[in-house]
Amino acid sequence: xxxxxxxPPDTAQxxxxxxxxxxxxxxxxxAPVEPGPGTAAPSxxxxxxxxxSTVQLTPGGVVAVAAGGTAAVLVVGxxxxxxxxxxxxxxxxxxxxxxxxxSILTNQHTNR
Length: 112
Prior knowledge:
The chain is an all-alpha fold. The longest helix is centred in the last third of the chain and has 53 residues, at 59-111. The radius of gyration is 38 Å and the shape is elongated. It has one helix spanning 59-111. The model has no long low-confidence stretch (mean pLDDT 79).
């Protein structure tokens, strides 16, 4: 029941540690070679400009994004209002308890 199903146990390859690459600098990291007096300087190779993917929103996509943003704002607002309401109810109940305890203590001192 608890044996792995993928890959089957008879086809699993044993794990081997990859060999570490030597820490020898290659010719790419070496200093550039100056051309001699009889040789022409190599022309620079132009780097290709990558295509940037542009986001194109259809009218339905704009409506979906607007609806999602509105829903997120409403949910966050509802959570914040409910937290504020919970704090207000707790504060009111603590205040009522304090008044009751104060009333009991003052009545106890006057009745003696």
